[in-house]
Every structure is written in C-alpha cells, then in structure tokens.
Design goal:
The chain is of the alpha/beta class. The chain contains seven helices and 13 strands. It is globular.
C-alpha cells in the first residue's frame, strides 16, 4: 500500500550555504523527514514560489496532509506590524507560499501539523499577530539559527486537547529554539499548551479538521522520545483517513 503523501514546503538557501555547492538550494532539515518516515508518511518537498490563494487549493489536491516546518521569522507586514530590528532571516516568497498553502489546507479539511515558525504562520493566516522578540527574562526558549541553540523545558498540555491526546500526556519535555511567539490569537484557534512563563506553546483550530500548531520542535527529539514521535504518528493517522 502506498504511503500517504504529505506536502512539506522547503525553504531557499543562498549560494554557498551547503558545502560543495556553488548554487542556491531548496532544503528541509532531515529530522522532519525522519520523523515522517517513522510514522509511515511519504513527504514531497515543495519549492516556494509566488503562489496565489486560489492556486494553492489545486496544488494541495494530490496531498493527504500538510506539514509547515520551522525556520526564519515571518515578515511583520503580514500581520500589520512595523518590523523590529531583532526580526531576522525573513524570506517573503516563503511567507506568501506557506500562508497560501495553510489557508488552502484549512479550506480542504486536510490534516495540518505546524511546527515553530509553522505555528506562527498558522496564527498569522488566521488573522493573529506575533511577538517579534519575547522578553530576555523568558529563559529556556533557546536561540534560533545557532548550532546547539535548543533548550529543553517542560510544557503543560491541556487535557483533552488534540496535542495531549496525540502525545498521551499533559506534560512533556520539549526542545525549543525560537525568539518569537504568538501574541494575539487568530480566528478559530484555541491555546492548548503553554510554557511555565506563559508563552503559547500549542494552538488548535476548532472544528472537525485536525489542525495543530506547536511552538517547540518535536522532530528534534522524536527519535528518542516516544511522546514527540507520537505527535507525528497522530498526524499520520489523520492523513491515512
């Protein structure tokens, strides 16, 4: 039986970013692929382009689900804010591509797992906003874009939420490396997990569709933490429907 096919948008890399390559690249970190493979899914890495909302539905038609991965910051203009000097690594074409795909997945009722930046894209697509830089007093959230920049900290999950049911727990140790987070909540989203300092760690879309966004990186530890892998397994079960 063929594995369910999941859309996994990659992101552009500048020339020289990959050792031995003269040209630019389109990439996705391997831990995402490994976690999907363990869950029985087949990913297709998509190259971002200037995608219109009406085209996104057709593009997603062959897929059983959508995974939005981590990465650089979402442009503040997408949620009506002026850019803070600490916002970095923005890629406008990636924003437009993923925002369009996110909206199309929700319209189609596709399962959607949105991770770190992906959860922020989900919130912005639903009309929410972001903290461009969480307070320096909030420790334990790691440093994005830095080798070994992740921190592990405990997160409380709401009992009965999709994320808690998927992970089989209401408390989990999670790997984080982010400096932005959800501020005002997007339409139809519910907060289902927070860190001890109050940062939003998971959101879900109300309704029948399985739409889950997590601020942490489950792929970082999914190879050795069954609770983190179970999040991908639950996504896979929904895609198999």
């Amino acid at each position: 039986m063929a594995r369910p096919l999941v859309a996994l948008p990659g992101y552009p890399l500048r020339a020289g970013r990959i050792d031995g390559w003269r040209d630019k690249g389109i990439a996705i970190p391997e831990p995402y692929v490994a976690a999907l493979d363990r869950s029985g899914l087949q990913e297709a890495i998509l190259s971002p382009f200037d995608l219109m909302d009406e085209e996104a539905t057709d593009l997603l038609a062959p897929f059983a689900g959508l995974l939005l991965a981590g990465g650089g910051d979402v442009l503040p203009s997408n949620y009506g804010h002026v850019r803070d000097e600490r916002t970095f690594a923005t890629i406008p074409v990636r924003d437009k591509f993923e925002l369009a795909l996110c909206g199309a997945a929700i319209r189609l009722g596709l399962p959607l797992l949105a991770i770190c930046r992906g959860a922020q894209v989900l919130n912005v697509q639903r009309g929410g906003t972001l903290f461009q830089h969480i307070s320096n007093e909030m420790s334990g959230h790691g440093k994005p874009g830095v080798e070994g920049g992740q921190d592990i900290h405990a997160i409380e999950l709401d009992a009965g939420s999709r994320v808690a049911e998927a992970m089989g727990a209401t408390r989990a140790s999670c790997s984080c490396h982010h400096h932005q987070a959800i501020d005002s909540l997007g339409d139809g989203l519910t907060i289902t997990a927070r860190s001890p300092d109050g940062v939003v760690e998971a959101v879900e879309l109300t309704g029948d569709s399985w739409v889950v966004g997590v601020q942490w990186h489950p792929e970082d530890t999914a190879d050795r933490d069954p609770a983190q892998q179970s999040l991908f397994d639950a996504f896979a079960q929904e895609c198999a429907r």
